Amino acid sequence: xxxxxxxxxxxxxxxxxxxxxxxxxxxxxxxxxxxxxxxxxxxxxxxxxxxxxxxxxxxxxxxxxxxxxxxxxxxxxxxxxxxxxxxxxxxxxxxxxxxxxxxxxxxxxxxxxxxxxxxxxxxxxxxxxxxxxxxxxxxxxxxxxxxxxxxxxxxxxxxxxxxxxx
Length: 166
What we know:
10 strands; 166 residues; 3 helices; alpha+beta; single chain
């Protein structure tokens, strides 16, 4: 019940407030064999500089009169691998339709108003993901546009999608 969210393309947040972790996926295709290397990082028990999962558990217990136990890194890895396996199974069975509803349930961007490319750029509304997983935004000037994560960054504090500086 703790409000964990996904920030496009690969961050894990508490609500829309604080980053708790991230996920990186590298893929290769060799012949007809597809390989995916998944890396995850979570702030489990380090309270500084922001907040950690175990701080959120303590807060949840106080607010709800519950007695959830703090997580060890080992427990979190085990839970994460179990969930990842079920997501892979759902994807293999149903394709994107097997995982996208859960993704949308947990993502922070639904209906977010943003500016594109600069603080004076066109205003747009986040509408979802395209078939390749790119963020889709809709503006009056440009209609629906896909934003690729390799070249762009989503600055949530300023509601701004900008080209990454290299």
